[in-house]
Write a structure and sequence with these properties.
Layout lengths: L2 H22 L1 H4 L11 E5 L6 H15 L7 E5 L6 H10 L6 E5 L2 H7 L12 E17 L7 H10 L5 E4 L6 H11 L9 E4 L3 H9 L5 E5 L4 H5 L3 E6 L25 E9 L4 H16 L1 H10 L2 E5 L1 H22 L4
Parallel strand pairs: 1-2, 1-3, 5-6, 5-7
Antiparallel strand pairs: 3-9, 4-7, 4-8, 4-9, 4-10
Helix pairs in contact: 7-12
Length: 338
Amino acid sequence: MNLKNWKSWLMAGVLMSTVTACSTSGSGDNTGESNYPKKPITVVAPSGAGGGWDLTARSLTKVLGETKLVDQTMTVENKPGGGGAVYLAEYATQYKKDDYKLFISSPPILINNLKKEGNSPYGYKDTTPLAQLTKDFGAIVVKADSKYNSLKELMDAVKNDPKSVTAAGGSAPGSMDHLVAVLPAYKSGVDPKTVKYVSYDGGGEAIAALLGGNADYIATDASAVGEFLKAGKVKVLGVSSTERLKGDLADVPTFKEEGIDTDFTIWRGVFGPKEMSNNAKKYWSKKLENLNDSQEWKDELKRNGWEEEYKSADDFSSFLKEQEKQVEDLLKSLGMNK
C-alpha cells in the first residue's frame, strides 16, 4: 500500500470511529435511542378495570393510536392493589429505566406516600411526571331534603357540634374523600380530628349511604354527582374548584364563594420511570401536548365528562410539589402524617 492509499484508509478509520461513537453515546448519558420508540409501549392503570385510572389509560392509548400520533402498539395493563401503592413500589424498583412503561395516577400517589398508615415508601419523586391531562374537583353533597342549604350552614353545624354531623366518603380515613370532607371544616377553624367520618368502599356506596340516611353529607368527585343532582336526589353545597364549573353544576358555588379560602384539584396525569431517557421524555412531552391539542382528545374528554387541564412536565412537577404541601398539611391536622 502506497502512502496516499494508507492516508485514505487512516482517514476512513477515524471517520468511522467518530460516527460509531456518536451513534452509541446515548447509552452512557441517559439520552436513550434516537429512534425511540422502536417497540410496543405499555400504559399501566394501577387499579382494576373500569375505574378512573383504567378509563384514562384506555382513552389515552385509543386516541394516540387513532390519531397516529404514536405509531407503535400501545396496550393497557391493570395492576390493582393498595390504591396504586403496590404497583408504584414495583415500578420504582424494577422499571426505573424502562422507557416503554408509563402509568396513570392522581392525588393518591401523594397521599399514600405521606400518611402514617400509608402503604407506600414511594411517591411522585420516584417517577418522571410527564403531563397532567384532566382535572376534577371535590364536591360536598347532601340529600335533597337535607336541612342544610349552604356549605356555610353545614360547616357552622360541624363547628357547633362535630359529632352530631356524619361525613362519609368512598375511601379510607386519610385518603382523598376524607381529605376533601374535612378540608372545608379545617379552613373554617374546626379541628379535623373531631369531624365524624365514615368510609365506604367506593363513591357509589357512599352516595347510597347518603340517600339511605346514614350520612349527613358526603365528599366525592364533582363529576360523579351530576345524574343524582338532575334526578333531584341530592343538593351540592360546594365544589373545591377555583371558579364555577359548567354543565349540571353551574349553579353550585365554590368553597371560596362560601367564605372558605381553599381549593383542591383531583387531577389525572401520565408518569414515566424516574431514570427515563432524555429522548423518551422529549418524545412524550411533544406527543402529549399534541394529544391535548387534538379534536379527537377533546371529544374523548366530553364523552367521559372530564374537564381538560393540560400541564407540561415542568408545570406538572411544580404543581405536584405545591399539592404535596397541601396534602401534608391536611394529614398533619388529622394526626395522620408520617
